[in-house]
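quick one, two chains, predict together pls
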Amino acid sequence: MTPYLWTWVAIVAAGVLAWATKFAGHVVPESWLENPRVHRIAAFVTVALLAALFAVQAFTSGPSVVLDARVAGVAVAAVLLWRRAPFIVVVAAAAAVAAGLRLLGWG
Amino acid sequence: MPRLSPARQQAVSVSVATGAYAISFGALSIAAGLDLWQTMALSLLVFSGGSQFAFVGVIAAGGTAAAAVVTSTFLGLRNGFYGVGLAPAMRPMHGMRRAWAAQVTIDESTAVALAQPADDQPARREGFWWTGVGVFLAWNAITVVGALLGSRIGDPAQWGLDAAAAAAFLGLLWPRLASRPAQAVAAASAVLALALTPVLPAGLPILAAAVVAVAVGWRPPASTQEVPE
């Protein structure tokens, strides 16, 4: 199989698993998911994975940790989030800052 | 003109706001190397922003298809708890109706449903369905717009799309950082992922962060205020 087809397999698998996860919440007896430990871990998994995805996307290039124009982009994003700017504004501003710096020849 | 109920008003505004950032998902998915059809399939089938950004983020970082599936699924685990919280308003529910309800059980539909008064179950159902279906339509339509824009762009980095992807993850993370333990989990996960990046294959440093979540979540918190939503 080609990498292109493997990507399709992964998309369908991710879709089926996403739906099965959501469906499970609607069919399992309520007592099953009331375990506080399960609740805590599930909430922290979301935080942990988003933080790791952010770090890898912002500060790595292949196998190396690098600091480039993305750093300025995410710094601006953080300030905007703190100022309660809408999501789309935050994302667009980060892109604009990084693109602008690269246009000037940095990072 | 008849006025919309509060649940429907919230549903419409949330659908528009959430749909708008599908434009960044569509563009980033193309930048990660997926084509238009794959990008549309992710929005239709996975339909959970965090999981979709994670999927294309792992692929963009050079991770395997399997790592993309596992990371995306882990990020969607919270959706499994929403059906339980919605049970008093939604159950009993059967057949195709339940299958569709599952597909649109996401952060936004759950939030709008539970924002309606607890003693008004019809309003909660209305909030759930209007938001779920509204976001589904907006998200999938605007994904196509983002993907078409993305495919007109040559080098994604030149347009800052790599910084945009990082900002998207930060934006999804931000509202979940209200408590101290959540902040600690986020900081430890970010440092661990960076430390493991030079030594593990792409995708695995991200999954390793789940270990931090299990370690911190295993013991009961000192106060009940410390667990994130």
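Chain A touches chain B through 77 residues (CB under 8 Å).
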